[in-house]
Amino acid sequence: MTKSRVAAIDVGNDSIKAIFGELDYELNIPNIIARDTEDRPVIGIEELDSKDPLDGIHIKVHSPALKENNVIYRVGNLATKTDNATELDPGSSKSEEDQTLIMLLATLALDAVQQTGFPKIKNVIDASYTLGTGLPLREVKEGKDAGYRSRLVGNVHQVEFLVTPKYQGLKVNIKFNEVKVYPEGFAAYINLVMDNNSKIINKDLIDKRILIQDIGGLSTDIAVIKKRNVDDDKAQGFNLGVSESLEAIREEIRKKHGVELDSRRDVVEIITRKNDRNHIMVKGSRTSVHDITDRILLDLAKKQYRLLRNVWQKNSQTEICYFVGGGSHVLKDYIKTLNNNLDGYNIEFFEDDKESIWMMANAYYKLIMDFVRKSEKPKEPVPVKAN
After folding, report:
1. What Rg value do the Cα atoms of the chain yield, rounded?
2. DSSP 3-state assignment of 364?
3. What's the pLDDT band for 119 if we cut at 50, 70, 90?
4. What is d(CA 109, CA 27) in angstroms, rounded to the nearest whole number?
């Protein structure tokens, strides 16, 4: 029997972060797709083979879980070069969008084609995964995690690589041995207190009352944690993320400077990079867009701060709030300034950009590995009573 490979995947609005196996492979792909045709023009097959597959993901996806089946897509970097690229819309449910599944399956297929442990007959690879992933708290509270999981488990999903460097012509059949869908806020807590071997690493936090504000692209989750337990009743999910603000910045830059940015990810890079932050090139000249980014992001930071204030007031014995997620990375400086000038809550951000951005994927990895270890543990024999 084929051994199931562990996968931990955070389908973030900005990008997919994935960790595989024994921490032996990572992927980070922009969450952008564009419908396409089979005959994408390529200049010479030799040139195709020398390119990075991640820059040319061109696939056909067949899955009973999709609303639109057998459609061809450009994915990630390749999709940004088209006029019809789509990113997840604000207000949409991650669990119900085809795009979430397309990105998830494409990421798994990109891992599967590199593995030698999966059976391969001619150009078809049969891959089996034990998946840990997550959904916004709001969607889990609405029970959408069960439907999302059932779309994955029990079906065979096929990803066919079309005009993709190195992998052209390969097909991957993906089956799930198990799928665990975790609430995002709870996962962030686990990441703070547990290491990859399920050992407690942050004893100070275990018995504290803490909030975790996870700001994503489409939503914000605030987990309320008391003495090792997530308070499901008090935890809240909000339809407020950074996507709309990033889109507004992109649009204003286009109108004011005539510069077309490919995706929201380009906006994030302009806002967060170490050098030339909040600057773009306009006709070869370095130009500041500080006025645009500051105004729009400060407005969003005020809304996020209001959410924090409201939840903290209802949980007045809270000791600290941790801000996590890609949105926190974008808004960090604005929220810190607001907090210093206003309430002065005990809040904490992760200064390491990678730690904040990869927090969910790392959490899902810890949780799914804990599940695998427990499920592989031999069961204790039932004692036989003497007559």
Report:
1. 22
2. helix
3. very high
4. 11
Residue 360: per-residue pLDDT: 87
Q: How far is CA 84 from CA 15, 33, 35, in A?
A: 18, 9, 7
Listed residues 131, 152, 182: the one ending a domain: 182
237 and 109 part of one domain: no
Q: How much is the mean pLDDT over the chain?
A: 87
- We report the CATH number of the domain holding residue 326 as 3.30.420.40
How many residues belong to the chain?
A: 387
* Nearest alpha-carbon partner for 21 in 375, 380, 369, 387: 369
Q: Which domain holds residue 216?
A: 185-241+294-373
* Beta-sheet pairing, 157-161 with 5-11: unpaired
Any alpha helices (H) in the chain, and if so which ranges? 45-50, 98-112, 137-141, 144-152, 184-193, 203-206, 243-257, 264-272, 290-314, 326-341, 353-357, 359-376
Do residues 134 and 212 share a domain?
no
Q: At what angle do helices 264-272 and 243-257 cross, to 10 degrees?
A: 90
pTM for this model (two decimals) = 0.86
Same domain for 156 and 298, yes or no, is: no
3-state secondary structure 266-333: HHHHHHHCCCCCCEEEECCEEEECHHHHHHHHHHHHHHHHHHHHHHHHHCCCCCEEEEECHHHHHHHH
Question: Same domain, yes or no, for 214 and 157?
Answer: no
